[in-house]
Amino acid sequence: MGILDFLKRKPEPSAGVAKERLRIIVAQERSTRGGPDYLPLLRNELLEVIRKYVNVDVEAVNINLERDSGHEILELSVALPDGKPVL
Amino acid sequence: MTEIIVVTSGKGGVGKTTTSASLATGLAMAGKKVAVIDFDVGLRNLDLIMGCERRVVYDFVNVVHGEATLKQALIKDKRHENLFVLAASQTRDKDALTQEGVEKVLDELVKENFDFVVCDSPAGIEKGAHLAMYFADHAVVVVNPEVSSVRDSDRILGLLSSKTRRAEKGESPIKQHLLLTRYNPNRVEAGEMLSVKDVEEILGISVVGVIPESENVLAASNAGVPVILDDNSNAGAAYKDTVARILGEERPLRFLEPVKKGFLKRVFGG
Asked: Which of B2, B127, B119, B107 has its CA nearest to residue B64?
């Protein structure tokens, strides 16, 4: 760092943001891993359908595939926005 | 017994070939009989990093297709007589390698009493990468402290535990080793780069080594000398530690602390 370096704008510490984003995406990808390839597509189409009626966020649709002995459970949850009546 | 190690990552450009070259050389320095195979069909590169590019006559695909014997295709390292390189083919035919073909070559290496076979995987998750990992006993997953590399390595860790021979046959799982490369402790301290701990937490696996970002890596590849042979570089020393850990030795991680600049440098820059 030289004499004039304090004039330069320092980059914002961004490692925290990276870690948080990775934590979320890695968890999401692990939950659908090993499941059928259509899951992400299904998620997107569901999102489109829901958005015809309610303005929900991209992250509002959560798909989870759980395996028990002998059967699989496709769990689907949709977080609706606060306080707004559903049309 | 022959142990097969795949060096893989998903993302390209993170240091797979650099790692394969140094790992193979380090194992040979420990007295092991080692073969290192370039699985990147169409984009041969390991030969350059190992410094044997002008001695390639036959390659991996030639052996698979029976156009050359394994003995003819193995290039003996100039520095270690127990180290051999099998170059990738430059063919554009992506289907040149088959699972049966790869298995045949690996079986022959087992018969020749190799201690280790290091498989340098191509980037991506397609056929070449799949074949490089399929028969492995160990995996070294190379990751940079950077978002896309971390995400891709999580994907690779998933594939290692499901799409390999050990997984398909229900044998004991592949031993996974996470290797963090291009680490810059100064940037980590400034909060600009993911730390060792961050990466370990996200991926849920601890590192087998941390290789600091170093100018010597480029110098080593320019010269065709694996960086592990550079006694003056931290990267080389960190690779030596990593190889020792893979061989079962316990060694503390080094080079994780920021390098403090001297007073003059701080005042005048540099």
From this structure: B107
With a threshold of 0.90, does the pTM exceed it? no
Residue B237 to residue B55: CA distance in whole angstroms? 28
Instruction: Please name the residues in contact with B93: beta carbons below 8 A apart, sequence gap of 6 or more.
Output: B41
Q: Among B264, B194, B190, which Cα is nearest to A21's?
A: B194
What is the distance between the alpha carbons of residues B64 and B80, in angstroms, rounded to a whole number? 26
Measured distance CA(A53)–CA(B266) in Å, rounded: 60
d(CA A40, CA A47): 11
Low-confidence residues of chain B: pLDDT under 70: 261, 263-270
Q: State the pLDDT at residue A83.
A: 61
Question: How distant is the Cα of B82 from the closest Cα of chain A, in angstroms?
Answer: 41
* pLDDT reported for residue B239: 98
Q: State how far the Cα of B162 lies from the Cα of B180, in Å rounded to an integer.
A: 23
* Contact criterion met (CB < 8 Å) for B195 and A3: no
Q: What is the ipTM of this complex?
A: 0.83
Closest CB to B191 among A3, A13, A25: A13
Distance from CA of A46 to the nearest CA of B (A): 25
Alpha-carbon radius of gyration of chain B: 18
Number of neighbouring beta carbons within 10 Å of residue A26: 18
Beta bridge partners of B207: B178
**Cβ within 8 Å, pair B158-A34:** yes
Q: Which of B154, B162, B193 sits opposite A26 (nearest CB)?
A: B154
Chain B environment of A34 (Cβ under 8 Å) = 158, 162
- Token pair for residue A71? 């059967």
Longest distance between any two alpha carbons in chain A, whole Å = 69
Q: Which residue has the higher pLDDT, A62 or B238?
A: B238
The token duo for A20 is 């948080």
The pLDDT tens digits of the residues spanning A7-34 come to 666 667 899 999 999 998 998 888 777 6
Burial class (CB in 10 A: 0-12, 13-18, 19+), A76: exposed
